Amino acid sequence: MASIISTTLSKWLSSPSRNITIAIIPVLLALYRVSKKPTRPLKVSKTGERVLILGASSGVGRTMAKQYSARGARVCVVGRRETLLLEVQSECRNAQDAAGSRSEDIIAIPADFTDVDDVINIRSVLQAEWGGLDTLVVAAGVSALQPLMAVAGVEATRDNQLKDATKEGIQHTINVAAAATRGNYVGPLLAAITFIPLLSNTSKAPAVVLVNSVASIIPAPTRTLYASTKASSLVLYQALSIEHPDITFTFFMPATIEGDFRASAVDSGPVRELDPNKHGLKREDVARRGIQAADNGEKAVFMPITMRYAHILYWIWPALIERVAKKKYNFGV
Q1: CA 254, 196, 293, 66 torsion: positive or negative?
Q2: CATH superfamily placement of domain 40-148+181-329
Q3: Per UniProt, which keywords does this protein have (predicted)?
Q4: Quick check: 56 and 139 in contact, CB under 8 A?
Q5: Which residues pair with 253 in a beta bridge?
Q6: Which residue from 13, 9, 36 is spatially nearest to 23, judged by alpha carbons?
Q7: Interior angle at CA 292, CA 287 and CA 298, nearest 5
Q8: What pLDDT, in 10s, does the model give residues 126-146?
Q9: Cβ–Cβ < 8 Å for 140, 55
Q10: Cα separations (Å) of 300 from 62, 124, 127, 129, 211?
């Protein structure tokens, strides 16, 4: 009987019309979630909301800190570079002044979110200063920009022949992969272990926002290490959302964003794609959408929305998405 069911299901799933039907289901569910009236602001006031942002010294994290501050939230900004953090703290206070919602609760903590002692110290500060936490934003991470074989020092020749990677090249790739894993997986893992109990025990409507990337669900050339390590943290938090149903998890997956995120690359070499400062999403728009998603209790958020359909289309017509990805990243040998 089991074999009959398996065979029948396999045939049904392999039918093109069935694939299209299945693809529509996530769209309908997304529309349903958007239509639901958000309840979180009724439990956690926007003014006074206790927000921790990991990776707040630059990029989307920095912009989210200013936007949260402008509406009167208590914000703790965390990053490795103290000078930049002090700038962010000042910007957050200025944003509160401009909005007429001044609060003294803008905390800046220089820390490495992949270091256990540093993260425990952050938790201790929040317990002492705020007595808990409402919202955790994980916006920290590192980039990696090269094809895997290029990291190993192996380049294709004109006749498309690959030379063997040297021992040094292999070891270098392992070191780069370890750095990417530490920044994009170990850090989010450590944050989850440290702050989930605090969120669950002290907030009426706890929320976690993982600022991830569309690269974690739609494969792209030159993003091998970056995409795979971001995908690992995505699945980690997806599983955690099942294990901790009292916490609302938002998986935020934007496309290329303007800024200098590529300066954090753990590998080296040429950047093949178009200038993100000319063609990328605007940081202010991305930050605003992330905050909105947390307020509304949205689960999976794509930006732009077309990426949701591209993700679905990848499983129906992978060759098309792969062709578009090659063009976007100017990839070819």
Answers
A1: negative
A2: NAD(P)-binding Rossmann-like Domain (3.40.50.720)
A3: NADP, Oxidoreductase
A4: yes
A5: 302
A6: 13
A7: 115
A8: 999 999 999 999 999 999 888
A9: yes
A10: 22, 31, 30, 32, 11
Bond before 304 cis per omega within 30 degrees = yes
State how far the Cα of 318 lies from the Cα of 1, in Å rounded to an integer: 33
Q: How many Cα neighbours within 13 Å face the side chain of 56?
A: 31
Q: 304 exposed, middle or buried (CB, 10 Å; 0-12, 13-18, 19+)?
A: middle
CB atoms near residue 225 (< 10 Å): 26
Supply φ then ψ for residue 213, to 5 degrees. Answer: -160, 145
- Rounded to whole angstroms, the Cα distance separating 165 from 156 reads 12
CA pair distance 45, 129, nearest whole angstrom: 18
Let me know if 92 is exposed, middle or buried by CB neighbors in 10 A (0-12, 13-18, 19+).
Answer: buried
pLDDT of residue 9: 46
CA atoms of 50 and 76, how far apart (whole Å)? 8
